Amino acid sequence: xxxxxxxxxxxxxxxxxxxxxxxxxxxxxxxxxxxxxxxxxxxxxxxxxxxxxxxxxxxxxxxxxxxxxxxxxxxxxxxxxxxxxxxxxxxxxxxxxxxxxxxxxx
Length: 106
Prior knowledge:
This protein is mainly α. The protein is 79% helix and 0% strand. The chain has helices spanning 2-37, 46-50, 58-67, 73-105.
């Protein structure tokens, strides 16, 4: 029973970590890429924000900037966790039932 609780807890923490990373890393990449291109996050207009960016990278910068708008990575992670954690609970329960049936069947 203790090993089941430990494995369920570790599985839950792994799921939470993966969901958090998969929600955070795309936003981190976009912000780092925009910073590398010279994007001015404090600009008041699109012209101010794109002033330091070379013309051939402006389309990419606009797409990246628009991709980080909207819901933030924290809300994406919460939604992912709400969708993934019930799956993890069900699979842990199924593993527990299968292991119990194998012990009683042997």
